[in-house]
Design brief:
Blueprint (H helix, E strand, L loop, with lengths): L1 E6 L6 H4 E4 L2 E7 L5 H11 L6 H4 L2 H12 L5 H14 L3 H12 L5 H13 L3 H14 L4 H13 L3 H14 L4 H11 L7 H15 L20 E6 L8 H10 L6 E6 L6 H7 L4 E4 L5 H10 L4 E5 L8 H5 L5 E5 L12 E4 L15 E4 L20 H5 L3 E4 L11 H10 L4 E5 L6 H13 L7 E4 L4 H7 L5 E3 L8 H8 L4 E4 L8 H8 L6 E2 L2 H12 L2 H16 L6 H22 L6
Parallel strand pairs: 1-3, 4-5, 4-7, 5-6, 7-8, 8-9, 9-10, 11-12, 11-14, 12-13, 14-15, 15-16
Antiparallel strand pairs: 2-3
Helix pairs in contact: 2-5, 5-6, 6-7, 7-8, 8-9, 9-10, 9-11, 10-11, 11-12, 13-25, 18-23
Length: 594
């Protein structure tokens, strides 16, 4: 965030005007330095008002700015900075990067490199992100936010083991903010040799450090009628165009009226059309992005929320700090890949496959097992039709992996090599954020080559428009799941497009996603419990093109008739769970006899 304010007679030097304060970039602008249209445009986007960037940057105005540059105008770098910020906020990242680079060519400022790194991340040029962040760190070696972000960037380029080790070092030496510590927990899940017990201990350590019980205060004066209408609050940073949108919208669309009201608490940095659509599906909606944990806690208490549900655990933008204050008498984790680690969280939503007996005890929360499973999918309103099996026309089988690069590792590459070796004509298609980054792709090809995979048989796609992404499934015969962090939304999307997935189920929560979805579809044949099975099933399936074609043609209908897409049934079981939580709470408080 950048704060614009006005001061008279300040110097034009960016090093004096652009400063870091906590997690904010403060920018002080002397009066009369910026053209009025830039000030007006920035003030509008700062409060979320839309602007038309092309009508802002007209040829006449850009010509005038060019003349100011030629005249060596003292405030030109400030003008470029504001232009970069405006373009960035309007998702015109390439243009934003152009303005920032003009500044960097003249002035080495750490926060300009920070902005360049953030823009490059939006462009999924992760190796460039790391380069810019390291430039920023070299200029400001004592800036903890830059140092921590540099470590996260290292993980995004695929160097997860090195990043996690560095994070652990920082966690031992520094006072670390909760979100950085949560990032460490997330990347810890991507290390293939981390077991569920280690993950549990790491999450409990987060709870002790950032959510001590001293923060907790119980609400008083509750109406403890076990059968009264309930208010449920949903707290998330993902009320936007995001993979979690499928689940959230399915729940909101499937509601039956018990509880009586659903309130949304959106920690959304950049609201979009999906945000606007979701707002209309809540009984009430609160934008909490600029609010402190204490302010959000007060709002939830004023809203008389009985059950507060936090989506997605320790993912980016979480507000678990709110739950530390226990603003609601009952608090629930939904979608976290491990325990929240917080004693203030009472329950977690799961199913019997996601949490088999051997890992069910690795939670501080009580697990609520949904009978129909905890996977629900609401497809986009418009998706391409399922195409014919590609192998029938190509004469060979194409495997696909559309999961994050970070889920691909040295444990799974040898299995892919074995599959490709047994099917000499087969191909492998990868698609992931960063697929357009030549440095990142080259490093991946080298790592896969160490496992014996011939790069000539591999095609890599970057992120592409959603319609093209879904259409790309029509070029895939079989999806290969990642391990030990299975795909989730990519698996659901593939199944919707008629592409079966061969998954490997293991000992961790994240290695059961594929299993629980295939179980709901009656396709447990595609679930493997050993590496040997994973290879054998993928090869056997690839050799049965007629069966593959029949499966492909029937998968969408199978999904439509499955519990995975029964929104009303899914939400009813969730509502029954909420009601039982409340009745148990009333019983605990002595208001309900057994």
């Amino acid at each position: 965030m950048v704060t614009l304010c006005s001061r008279k007679d300040e110097r034009h030097d960016l090093s004096k005007l652009l400063t870091w304060r906590d997690d904010r970039m403060d920018l002080d602008i002397p009066d009369g330095v910026l053209p009025p249209f830039l000030i007006e445009a920035y003030n509008r986007i700062a409060v979320g008002e839309p602007i038309h960037i092309d009508s802002l940057c007209t040829p006449e105005r850009l010509d005038r700015l060019q003349k100011l540059e030629e005249e060596h105008y003292a405030g030109i770098e400030l003008i470029w900075l504001i232009l970069g910020l405006i373009h960035h906020r309007c998702n015109r990242r390439t243009e934003a990067l152009r303005w920032y680079r003009k500044i960097a060519a003249r002035t080495a400022h750490p926060l300009v490199y920070q902005e360049m790194a953030d823009v490059s991340q939006g462009l999924h040029q992760y190796s460039q992100v790391l380069q810019y962040r390291r430039e920023a760190l070299a200029l400001a070696p004592d800036c903890l936010p830059i140092r921590r972000q540099c470590v996260i960037d290292l993980a995004l380029t695929g160097h997860v083991t090195e990043a996690v080790a560095t994070m652990e070092s920082l966690l031992r030496k520094e006072t670390v903010d909760p979100l950085f510590h949560s990032s460490y927990l997330w990347y810890l899940h991507l290390l293939p040799d981390t077991d569920q017990a280690q993950l549990f201990e790491a999450h409990k350590a987060w709870g002790v450090r950032h959510a001590p019980v001293q923060k907790t205060t119980e609400r008083e004066g509750l109406d403890l009628d076990p059968d009264r209408p309930l208010r449920v609050g949903y707290l998330s940073a993902d009320f936007r165009q995001h993979s979690a949108l499928y689940l959230i919208e399915a729940i909101l669309d499937g509601g039956s009226g018990d509880p009586c009201e659903i309130v949304g608490y959106g920690n959304v940095a950049h609201p979009d059309r999906a945000t606007a659509r979701l707002k209309g599906k809540f009984g009430r909606y609160r934008d909490i992005f600029e609010m402190s944990d204490q302010e959000v806690t007060g709002q939830i208490r004023r809203d008389d929320i009985d059950i507060l549900v936090a989506f997605a655990g320790h993912t980016n933008g979480h507000r678990l700090g709110v739950l530390a204050h226990r603003p609601a008498p009952i608090q629930v984790d939904y979608g976290g890949v491990c325990s929240s680690g917080m004693v203030q969280v009472d329950y977690r939503i799961t199913d019997a496959i996601m949490d088999p007996p051997d890992i069910a005890d690795y939670y501080v929360e009580r697990s609520i097992v949904l009978p129909q499973g905890c996977a629900c999918y609401r497809p986009p309103d418009v998706t391409p039709p399922v195409g014919p099996l590609p192998a029938l026309s190509k004469g060979y089988v194409t495997f696909g992996v559309f999961n994050s690069r970070l889920k691909m590792n040295g444990k799974i590459f040898p299995l892919w090599h074995q599959i490709l070796t047994q099917l000499p004509d087969s191909k492998l298609v990868l698609k992931f954020p960063g697929g357009s980054d030549e440095v990142l792709v080259e490093e991946l090809m080298q790592e896969m080559a160490l496992a014996g995979i011939d790069r000539r048989r591999v095609t890599v796609y970057p992120l592409i428009p959603f319609a093209d992404h879904m259409t790309l499934y029509n070029s895939i015969d079989i999806a290969l799941d990642t391990y030990p962090f299975n795909g989730c939304i990519t698996t659901q999307e593939g199944l919707w497009m008629g592409v079966p997935v061969v998954t490997l189920s293991g000992q961790r929560f994240t290695s059961h996603y594929g299993h629980t979805m295939l179980k709901r579809l009656g396709l447990e044949f595609f679930v493997s419990t050993s590496k040997e099975q994973y290879v054998a099933k993928a090869v056997a399936l690839a050799r049965q093109t007629e069966s593959l074609a029949r499966i492909r043609a029937s998968l969408r209908t199978r999904m439509l008739n499955s519990p995975m897409m029964d929104y009303a049934g899914y939400t009813r079981q969730l509502e029954r769970a909420y009601r039982q939580m409340w009745r148990d709470y009333c019983r605990k408080k002595g208001q309900l006899t057994p």
